[in-house]
Amino acid sequence: MMRNIKLLAGIFGIVVSVYLLLISCYTAAWNVLTMSGHFNGIIGIVIGALLLAGSIVRIGLRKAEDDSGSIISLVLFGCAAGVAFAITPIYRYMQGWAIICLMMGIISVLMIMWKNAKKE
User: How many whole angstroms separate alpha carbon 42 and alpha carbon 110?
Assistant: First the structure.
């Protein structure tokens, strides 16, 4: 059951991160071409890359005996959420991405707690 949840959450994270990377690459290219001075595309690429890395780690290490996959993905999702929340005062729409990253981190914490509760 726990492996299936990790797999589904990882697939969801990959789909969301690919979407974020696509729109962020478009935005970054537009910012460069128009010389607007905005940097929201680059920040979106960073957040998308961290979200993608955390999701891939979650899927790749879902069968691990220890909590290493959940801990690594928690750190990556936490970094992504931190960057997104930090940039939210400038670009308000980043708050949505921050909440998604935070939810993915919460799922990692719940998986760690569930595995520890199962051991006892």
Answer: 31
Sign of CA pseudo-dihedral 18, 24, 30, 33: negative
CB-based contacts of 41-47 (< 8 A; 24+ apart in sequence)? 43/83, 43/84, 43/87, 43/91, 43/94, 44/20, 44/94, 44/97, 45/21, 46/80, 46/83, 47/20, 47/80, 47/83, 47/84, 47/94, 47/97, 47/101
- What is d(CA 83, CA 44) in angstroms, rounded to the nearest whole number? 9
Phi/psi at 62 (5° precision): -70, -20
Per residue in 7-33, pLDDT (tens digit) is 899 999 999 999 999 999 999 999 999
pTM exceeds 0.85: yes
Grouping H, G, I as helix, E, B as strand and the rest as coil, residue 1 is coil
* Domain range summary for the chain, segments of one domain joined by +: 2-119
Q: DSSP letter at 65?
A: S
